[in-house]
Amino acid sequence: MNTTLLGIIIGAAVLLLLLMAAVKIVPEYERGVIFRLGRIIGAKGPGLFFIIPVVDRMVRVSLRTVTMDIPPQDVITKDNVTVRVNAVTYFNVVDPNRSVVAVEDHITATSQIAQTTLRSILGQVDLDELLVNRDEINQRLQQIIDDVTDPWGVKVTLVEVKDVELPQAMRRAMARQAESERDRRAKVIHAKGEFEAAQTLADAAERLEGHPAAMHLRILSTMAEITGERNSTLIFPLPMEVLRLVDTLRPSDAAAGGARTP
């Protein structure tokens, strides 16, 4: 009796364990890849499903986007400048079956491919292109890495170069270059302003030259402005017309004086 009861208890426990092993629950963001006697059956989920205990084996695969930092890489650019670059890549599994069968660890494999591709692509561009055309470089990196990981069932959605660390000497040289460029632009703007001012004065002088009366009015206006500010003694040349008038009057005055002499 005791032996029979013990057998029933053991059998019930075994059945319970088998039932627990057969029932699988997979969340929405995962899939369960089923292997039956070593042969892949396919991916199941999400939700509740059953497998054959002992015979079947399930491997869970996450479909969520993975954000992975690419470790800083020392890169020699096309123009022989050594820079340290780090980046970040975003990818997710789109085919659970291939991500399990085609590669042992798709996350590690994607990380290694991203590092080697980063060094390879940045070694083909100049430093100026790396600093200016970063969006284009990001697109090239994303396309190349995605082409490599596609047979693994992995989709690379985005690659971003986060930081480009230049050597200290290079940073100082670039700072001096930027300062020189700012000085050059300031001088150009100043020279352009002086040229426009001189051109305006030349145009005004040319117009006033043909109108002596306007010139006199301008002189009187300037004198009024100056005397209105402070009491001053002004010395200014007489107009040429006045001097000519004085010259014409001098002979007549001399003749009149001679006639009055007794």
Give the topology, please.
Elements: H1 2-22, E1 23-26, E2 30-36, E3 39-44, E4 47-50, E5 56-62, E6 66-76, E7 82-93, H2 96-101, H3 106-122, H4 127-132, H5 134-149, E8 154-165, H6 168-209, H7 212-229, H8 240-259
Antiparallel strand pairs: 1-4, 2-3, 2-5, 6-7, 7-8
Explain what the structure shows.
The protein is of the alpha+beta class and 262 residues long. The protein has helices at 2-22, 96-101, 106-122, 127-132, 134-149, 168-209, 212-229, 240-259; strands at 23-26, 30-36, 39-44, 47-50, 56-62, 66-76, 82-93, 154-165. The strands form three sheets. It has a three-stranded antiparallel sheet. Strands 6-7-8 form a three-stranded antiparallel sheet. Strand 2 and strand 3 form a beta hairpin. The radius of gyration is 46 Å and the shape is rod-shaped. 13% of the residues are buried.
Tally of DSSP helical segments:
8
Distance N terminus to C terminus?
182 Å
Instruction: Compute the number of strand runs.
Output: 8
Shape from CA axes?
Answer: rod-shaped
For the sheet with most strands, the description reads: 3 strands, antiparallel
Uncertain regions spanning at least 5 consecutive residues? 253-262
Radius of gyration: 46 Å
